[in-house]
């Protein structure tokens, strides 16, 4: 027997970084909306410790400068910045060739080009902020189905071994790139397999990173080292994203930690001295996943459920965040104009506004893979000339910097959160 839960206005399937950020933004911008988050993992006091102790093996996310501005608007940046390592410099190079380009934050009048933050710390900051809002949670629980109704949607939720129903105006699917709910609702995805895996780990080097992010293109695939650890001191820890073919991944995983460091040294070089430690390794297949139509009456896809990118340019979460704020703007418009949240006039406009951003970001990330994946001498020469050109031509360099900083597209405006907007800060 299906049991009815208290109805709501908006149901968010998934309480990870995307779902929790959307819930917080709605609480800040459209506080009159009743928002319910359905999350498969249990919430408990143990999940919100008083003191956060960063782990060496913590997974992390690259945050563009534009994402910092959004989190400032939401009143969350002062907390996030406690454990967010700034990126002052970006160095892009082509292994074994002369092409290289460099970006420096001070050249663009910013205190940082971006940041690197532990996923667990970001989740903890979001949960602490959400506890002070009226957002309600169903956890552990999962959305298992949805049907449209004259007034919106009726969502089926499985909780404690029983099925419940929850009615609202709209369902937002935010349960990640492997969303089973997306498939069940009949959304058609386009998937392009790069034939590669991303190996993720934290590494230590003999030389400090000096708050520099390295993007290194090699004949075996791109790799990135992002500054990690203290937000104030340039330490010796970096977050590694290492692109490997399927066969190369198996070989690397079979190596000892010492031999992994030696292999990494061969691919990356000596810009940070000797690799002295590599932590727990995670890996996942690399695919470009897009959805032609990310909205339908009463339902919208966001985050990785709507698009998953190659991590080469660190744009995935930043693109998702901009999309979330675009959706919040449309929900605010719906409330102001008295339109149902799930109306296609609202969701279709969200898709239209966000589409240009994700198309440009996908093109930017995908083109880097294709351009730097070519080893033919004429193409390699043209590629190196292009990198040198980026380094020498101010206009081209500004364009590249805007892409890297997440400020090159449409900038969403959250005008109604002045009460929680943080004062401008200058990091040191």
Automatic annotation (TrEMBL):
- What InterPro entries does the record tag this protein with? FAD-bd, FAD/NAD-bd_sf, UbiH/COQ6, UbiH/COQ6_monooxygenase
Which coenzyme or cofactor does it need? Answer: FAD
Which Pfam families has this protein been placed in? FAD_binding_3 (PF01494)
Q: Where is the FAD-binding domain positioned along the sequence?
A: 7-336
For this chain, the family text in UniProt reads: Belongs to the UbiH/COQ6 family.
What keywords would UniProt list here? Answer: FAD, Flavoprotein, Monooxygenase, Oxidoreductase
Q: Does the keyword Membrane apply?
A: no
Q: Which SUPFAM superfamilies does the UniProt record give?
A: FAD/NAD(P)-binding domain
GO annotation, biological process: ubiquinone biosynthetic process
Name the record gives this protein = 2-octaprenyl-6-methoxyphenyl hydroxylase
Judging by the UniProt lineage, the source's domain of life is Bacteria
Say yes or no: keyword Phosphoprotein present: no
Q: Can you name one GO molecular function term for this protein? A: FAD binding
């Amino acid at each position: 027997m299906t049991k009815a839960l208290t109805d709501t206005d908006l149901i968010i399937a998934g309480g990870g970084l995307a779902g929790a950020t959307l819930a917080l933004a709605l609480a800040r911008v459209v506080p009159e909306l009743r928002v319910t988050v359905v999350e498969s993992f249990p919430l408990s006091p143990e999940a919100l410790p008083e003191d956060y102790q960063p782990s060496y093996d913590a997974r992390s996310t690259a945050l563009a400068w534009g994402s910092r501005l959004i989190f400032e608007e939401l009143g969350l940046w002062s907390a996030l910045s406690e454990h967010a390592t700034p990126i002052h410099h970006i160095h892009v190079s082509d292994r074994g060739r002369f092409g290289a380009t460099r970006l420096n934050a001070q050249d663009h009048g910013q205190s940082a080009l971006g940041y690197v933050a532990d996923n667990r710390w970001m989740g903890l900051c979001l949960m602490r902020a959400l506890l002070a809002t009226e957002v309600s949670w169903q956890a552990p629980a999962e959305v298992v189905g949805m049907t449209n109704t004259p007034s919106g949607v009726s969502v089926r939720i499985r909780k404690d071994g029983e099925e419940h129903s929850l009615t609202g105006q709209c369902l937002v699917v935010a349960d990640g790139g492997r969303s089973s709910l997306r498939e069940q609702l009949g959304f058609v995805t386009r998937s392009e397999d790069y034939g590669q895996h991303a190996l993720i780990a934290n590494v230590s080097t003999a030389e400090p990173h000096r708050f520099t992010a390295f993007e290194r293109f090699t004949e075996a695939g791109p790799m990135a080292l992002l500054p990690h650890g203290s937000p104030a001191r340039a330490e010796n820890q970096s977050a590694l994203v290492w692109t490997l073919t399927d066969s190369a991944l198996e070989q690397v995983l079979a190596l000892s930690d010492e031999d992994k460091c030696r292999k990494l040294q061969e691919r990356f070089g000596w810009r940070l001295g000797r690799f002295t430690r590599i932590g727990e390794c995670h890996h996942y297949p690399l695919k470009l996943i897009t959805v032609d139509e990310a909205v339908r009456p009463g339902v919208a896809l966001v985050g990785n459920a709507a698009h998953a990118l190659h991590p080469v340019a660190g744009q995935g979460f930043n693109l998702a965040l901009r999309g979330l704020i675009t959706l919040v703007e449309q929900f605010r418009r719906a409330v102001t104009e008295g339109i149902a949240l799930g109306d296609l006039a609202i969701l279709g406009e969200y898709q239209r506004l966000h589409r240009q951003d994700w198309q440009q970001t996908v093109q930017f990330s995908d083109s880097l893979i294709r351009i730097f994946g070519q080893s033919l001498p004429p193409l390699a020469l043209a590629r190196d000339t292009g990198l040198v050109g980026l380094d020498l031509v101010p206009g081209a360099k500004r364009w590249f910097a805007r892409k890297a900083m997440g400020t090159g597209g449409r900038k969403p405006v959250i005008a109604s959160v002045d009460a929680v907007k943080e004062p401008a800060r200058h990091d040191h």
